[in-house]
Amino acid sequence: MIVCGVLLLVFLVVLDLPTSSPYAVTIMLIVMGGWKMSRAYVTLHSDYFQTQLAPIGGWHTVLYNEVTDIEENGKMLNIYYKKFNSAGGAKSTLIKLSLGEFDEAEQERFIAAFYARLPDSLFQ
After folding, report:
1. Threshold 0.70, pTM exceeds
2. DSSP readout, 37-105?
3. Domain 42-123: which topology?
């Protein structure tokens, strides 16, 4: 993303376009790329995990005991959870984690570490 932003910026400077709108898009690409490189996508703790899916979105904090289902779909890990203090008939909330953020070795380590922390009752 940073590379695309820098290339677009160089392209706009070479063309010497008078409008500032393409520059705003370019700066946004560079900032988003920098944010993705500097932020932890998922942090695993002993009894909960946290994830921030968007720069302006808040952190999702989920206890491992609140996880109701997990699906692996290619490069996506879909995690369904229901908060303990939610109403009895409340639907599970879905978090979609893109495993494409990790290289292949990191993906395997992350999935193994994540599954090791989940309660055994989830796999029965």
Report:
1. no
2. HHS-SEEE-SSEEEE--SSSSPPEEEEGGGEEEEEEETTEEEEEE--TTS-TTPPPEEEEEEGGGS-HH
3. OB fold (Dihydrolipoamide Acetyltransferase, E2P) (2.40.50)
